[in-house]
Each structure stands twice: as C-alpha cells, then as structure tokens.
Amino acid sequence: MLVWARGLFNWLPLIIANVLHKADPMKMRLFYLLRCTVEIVLSPLLCDTHLIYLNDLIAKHYGLFRICFLDGRLLYKHHRMIHYARIIRRSGPLLGMMVIRYEAKHNFAKRLAHVTCNFKNISYSVCRRHQMTHALNGSSYN
Questions:
Q1: Which of 46, 51, 117, 135 has the fewest C-beta atoms under 10 angstroms from its C-beta?
Q2: Would you say 118 and 127 are in contact if contact means Cβ atoms under 8 Å apart?
Q3: Please, what sign has the CA dihedral across residues 68, 69, 74, 75?
Q4: What is the pTM of this model?
C-alpha cells in the first residue's frame, strides 16, 4: 500500500478523534469500507478470493453511500470502482498502473505555463524553466 494512503486512512481517525464521537455511525462504516477497498486495490499481490471480497466491499460501499447521501449523486469515480476487480483480473494489480507522479509533473508544467503567460513558444518556455528548476535544485545538494 502506498505510504500516503496508509497514512491517510490510518491516521485520519486519530487526527479527528474529537469529532468522531459526533459522527454518524453509518458514515464511519462507509469510511471503513473505503479503507478496506483501498487496502485491497493498492496491494501488490492479489488472488481470486481478494477480488471476490473486493466486489463485495464495493457493492456494500455503493449501497451505503446511496443511503448516507440521499440528495447527492454518485460521481463517475464511484461507478469506476465497480470495474476494479475485472481490471485487476485482466491486467494485474492497479499499483503498477498509477499515474500520480506523472500527474504531479504535468501539474508543474501546467502551472508554469499559466504563470509565465508566454504562449508564443510554450514548449520551449516550459522546457527552459523546467531545466532551470532542476539546475537550481541540483546545485543546492552540493
């Protein structure tokens, strides 16, 4: 399991412990189901029993979410959770398919393009600033 996900799901109840006694038990159950789902989805090795359990967890989470949030609509990401077990069965663990680092790098370039406001040769501008950033970060370690 990824460090940030483990930290989020393990430490969040402790961080907000003073508010938990006021929390709705059904929403706490929803959080627990999501926590179990994330543990299975981010594990590096899975067998068929894990995938069956994952389908069951997602179905329970889906139903409980609809009960807890009657006025809220389910988002598309909730629908995609239904397909996790099938994707894992066909392609292997989802841990190897994560694009978090790519998204972070792309976010840097997107933000840089917006801040510089130079759109004549955007690829050159972003590339140049990216190289300068790496040069400055590399020189600070020496």
A1: 117
A2: no
A3: negative
A4: 0.68
